[in-house]
Amino acid sequence: MSPSTSLLQYTLHLADDALILGHRNSEWTGYGPILEQDIAISNIALDLIGQARNFYQYAAQLMNEGAVEGGKEVTEDDLAYLRDSWDFRNCLLAEQTNGDWAKTILRQFFSPLQRR
User: How many CA atoms lie within 13 Å of 87's alpha carbon, on the beta-carbon side?
Assistant: First the structure.
């Protein structure tokens, strides 16, 4: 595996983690235990989706730099929404259902994105 391939795989891993975790956190919008926590988890979800966009844009740039001339350019939307489920490289912790509020906060705490 070349360094550029490793960088692409790592970037997709971070992007997938942020996208999945952002979507899971957004499921709490309107259902948080108190208003402040509801607003906070919604803002965290928005931040994670923004991080995912940034990572997907970078991954698309890496892929397009190595693409064959005349081929279709890959976009961030292609990477985020047009891949099969088995192509995602996210940590399985990010996929876990929300459960109760404590489980969601614990998942957020142990997320690989928090340890960068």
Answer: 8
Spell out the residues 6+ positions from residue 97 whose beta carbon is closer than 8 angstroms to its own.
24
Q: Note whether 23 and 45 are within 8 A (CB).
A: yes
Structure tokens of 25?
């956190």
Q: Which of 92, 20, 98 is nearest to 55 (CA)?
A: 20
DSSP 68: P
Q: Is residue 94 within 8 Å of residue 4, measured between CB atoms?
A: no
Amino acid at 111: S
Chain centre distance of CA 51: 7
Rounded distance between C-alpha atoms, residue 16 and residue 87, angstroms: 10
pLDDT single digits (tens) 59-93: 999 999 876 666 789 999 999 999 999 999 999 99
The residues, ordered by sequence, that sit 6+ positions from 104 with a Cβ below 8 Å of its Cβ are 24, 25, 28, 41, 98
pTM for this predicted structure: 0.89
Q: How confident is the model at residue 50 (pLDDT cuts 50, 70, 90)?
A: very high
